[in-house]
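Posted in: Protein Modeling Q&A

I'm a second-year student putting together a small comparison for a lab meeting, and my supervisor asked me to include a predicted structure for DUF1236 domain-containing protein. I've never done this before, so apologies if this is the wrong subforum. The sequence is pasted below exactly as I got it from our records. If anyone can share the structure token output, I'd also love a short note on what stands out.
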Amino acid sequence: MYKLFAITTATSLAFAASAFADTAATAGTDLNLRSGPGVQHEVTGTIKGGDEVNVVGCIEEANWCEVNYGDQHGWAYGDYLAAKVGEEFMPIYPNRQEIGVTVVKTPVVDEAEEGQNAAVGAGTGAAMGALIGGPLGAIVGATAGTVAGSASTEPTEAVTTYVEANPQDPIVLDGEVVVGAGVPDNVTLYDIPDQPDYKYVTINGQEVLVNPTDRKIVYIYR
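Accepted answer (user: helix_wrangler)
Welcome! Here is the predicted structure, written out as tokens:
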């Protein structure tokens, strides 16, 4: 009788632990780690494309997930995280119920932190549109280590110097800034002298280089 009770209790505890366990996921591209669920929050680190994170949970009404990455804790955009189900990867956010991702509430931000977030430069007004595509589901059907969309071309020192010396007004777009995402046509891109392969703009608090031909982000200044 005692043994049966002990086994039953242990089984119940194991089930309870698994029900609230983090979900292992892989980043489909180099991905910002932010202090809160939104582009208005500060970037505190970068999750390398192909690296694994532990997803604590995702917000039901917004595409942001709370994650642990090594010794770092923060929030990442759910479109670029995928979990392995069987032999295939599935994007976390649209499949969170099937994968069994925990639903978490949007954290309450105090006034002091809200003021700090506004200083990040992403702005707090309405978004001008949304970033287009990007490496969504880049690791779906692939294995970690064969991640698409995470590589970017290192700009020359002359390009970097010009961008840093000539800041432009930041804009806000829905979605996260990643290499391969497209910038909408209504967003002004700025020229870099003698550099026809690049234009630049500040999106969601980060300066980015854009290919003027297809308007895709090719480099992010972090």
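A couple of things worth pointing out for your meeting: The CA atoms of residues 36 and 108 lie 10 Å apart. The chain has one domain: 2-220.
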